[in-house]
From TrEMBL, chains A, B:
<dbReference type="InterPro" id="IPR036390">
    <property type="entry name" value="WH_DNA-bd_sf"/>
</dbReference>
<dbReference type="Pfam" id="PF12840">
    <property type="entry name" value="HTH_20"/>
</dbReference>
<dbReference type="GO" id="GO:0032791">
    <property type="term" value="F:lead ion binding"/>
</dbReference>
<dbReference type="InterPro" id="IPR052543">
    <property type="entry name" value="HTH_Metal-responsive_Reg"/>
</dbReference>
<dbReference type="GO" id="GO:0003700">
    <property type="term" value="F:DNA-binding transcription factor activity"/>
</dbReference>
<dbReference type="GO" id="GO:0046686">
    <property type="term" value="P:response to cadmium ion"/>
</dbReference>
<feature type="domain" description="HTH arsR-type">
    <location>
        <begin position="2"/>
        <end position="97"/>
    </location>
</feature>
<dbReference type="GO" id="GO:0097063">
    <property type="term" value="F:cadmium ion sensor activity"/>
</dbReference>
<dbReference type="InterPro" id="IPR036388">
    <property type="entry name" value="WH-like_DNA-bd_sf"/>
</dbReference>
<protein>
    <submittedName>
        <fullName>Helix-turn-helix transcriptional regulator</fullName>
    </submittedName>
</protein>
<dbReference type="GO" id="GO:0003677">
    <property type="term" value="F:DNA binding"/>
</dbReference>
<dbReference type="InterPro" id="IPR001845">
    <property type="entry name" value="HTH_ArsR_DNA-bd_dom"/>
</dbReference>
<dbReference type="InterPro" id="IPR011991">
    <property type="entry name" value="ArsR-like_HTH"/>
</dbReference>
<dbReference type="GO" id="GO:0010288">
    <property type="term" value="P:response to lead ion"/>
</dbReference>
Length: 238, 238
DNA sequence: AGGATGCTTCGCCGTGGCCCGAAGCGTCCG
DNA sequence: CGGACGCTTCGGGCCACGGCGAAGCATCCT
């Protein structure tokens, strides 16, 4: 005999996201990096005491993973599915209340980081190209790279070996602004970080602190555009 | 200068789902049918007065559409994206807290109604078959049926003309139990209702009232299995 | 050591929300 | 027309939850 007033699992999860402070924390974590409790407290605009309580609840609820390191406690989203759920919910919010348009429609859509892989137009185009050429094929739980694909990707600076040691996730994370699958999982993460490291992509600082979700806007640098065209035959001018 | 304590859109939407009574209402509406305020009050386990307030908030928040009819007021989910968001969130809940397993794992997964189109194993298999044979190709905003596809589908009792008048939605609604796209939109709806009407599929009564989401379980009848095999070459025995 | 820093626990207060019963409209029916 | 029914609005009570400051641990630095 279960308590009829007990919130079902759906309400319970939603309640975790429903608090403004917690939502700000989660949004901040959508970038994919792990942040300390103090940083999250600042982002959320509450004291350390309050933030501590929130973080405990989020971790307890399974949305966050905690990684203690010295006197810091790093927090990150528990999984790609958590990120996807927040993404979907956030997309719904903007779709329902189209209060604010994208600052510069096309620009913002072009490339961005979702969770921590490439999303937006670039992410979709990349996904299309890599699978279209047979360089990458989705397999249950991850991706399979053809011999040709390995060479191509590694020529762009992507460390495939490292991507393969990372936990695999078959998150065909749906991108609400493009409505097409993009490249997620360990490989997507590796690609994004490699190209950011090599300067092909550059992060833009968050424009508005309380932006829809604290997505990381990205710009493709001229070198990046050249590299993608030469290495992968991906011409983004079109 | 916006109020810094104002809940962002993410938190606002989540808050709508976060209340147990409202969550039960939304879950009940996941079947896709429109329900009256009274029915929803009963489902949620609250008085009509309380339910009225909840429904007003949900409609105000854009999650529900209201359709007054005589002295009744019918409510339904505002869009497929709303359904998808709830679906995703619900999936997250069960994934994180695998409290209760599916009663009979395989059976329950086999076929069910998501929102109001086919989901589960059957939905995915159908999607695969129809697109694999080139009978159906996704186009922005809906589906395109080849000449062959039209004949095949209409032979199974699907009214394509009616499906085309329905509002189109390119909801490649991701199915969390199968993690593959299934057939959504006006066509998906039409297919589901046609096959249910002809007895190929039969609805099962909800087992537990407070089930994860009030998904409609479906069984494929022997006639349905035969019809799918003969008409579409879809053999579900495998 | 001793002190600074990061984080958590505790106790308290304030408020927002949820809930209900009663009353007020609109609609349908005999 | 009167009454039943469906739904909404209003007023009031109640509890949960978010917020803070102070105190308590743990860790790092010198």
């Amino acid at each position: 005999m279960t308590d009829p007033t007990a919130p079902g699992p759906l309400a319970a999860i939603a309640a975790l996201i429903a608090d403004p402070a917690r939502a700000r924390m989660l949004a901040a974590l959508m970038g994919g990096e792990a942040l300390t409790a103090g940083e999250l407290a600042r982002v959320a605009g509450v004291t350390a005491a309050t933030a501590s309580g929130h973080l405990a609840r989020l971790a307890e609820g399974g949305l966050l993973l905690v990684h203690p390191q010295g006197r810091h406690r790093y927090h990150r989203l528990a999984s790609e599915e958590v990120a996807a759920a927040i993404e979907t919910l956030g997309g719904l919010a903007t779709r329902i209340a189209p209060v604010r348009q994208w600052k510069h429609g096309e620009d913002a859509r072009r490339a961005r980081l979702c969770w921590n892989h490439l999303a937006g137009r670039l992410g979709v185009a990349l996904h299309l190209r890599l699978t279209g050429e047979g360089w990458l094929t989705p397999v249950p739980g991850g991706w399979d790279a053809s011999r040709d694909g390995r060479v191509r990707l590694e020529a762009t600076g992507v460390d495939l070996a490292r991507a393969e040691t990372a936990p695999r996730f078959a998150c065909d994370c749906m991108d609400w602004s493009e409505r097409r699958p993009h490249l997620a999982g360990g490989l997507g993460r590796e690609i994004a970080s490699a190209w950011i490291a090599s300067g092909w992509l550059r992060r833009l600082p968050a424009q508005a602190e309380d932006d829809i979700l604290a997505r990381r806007r990205l710009v493709l640098t001229p070198e990046g555009a050249r590299g993608l065209k030469d290495g992968l035959g991906l011409d983004l001018a079109a």
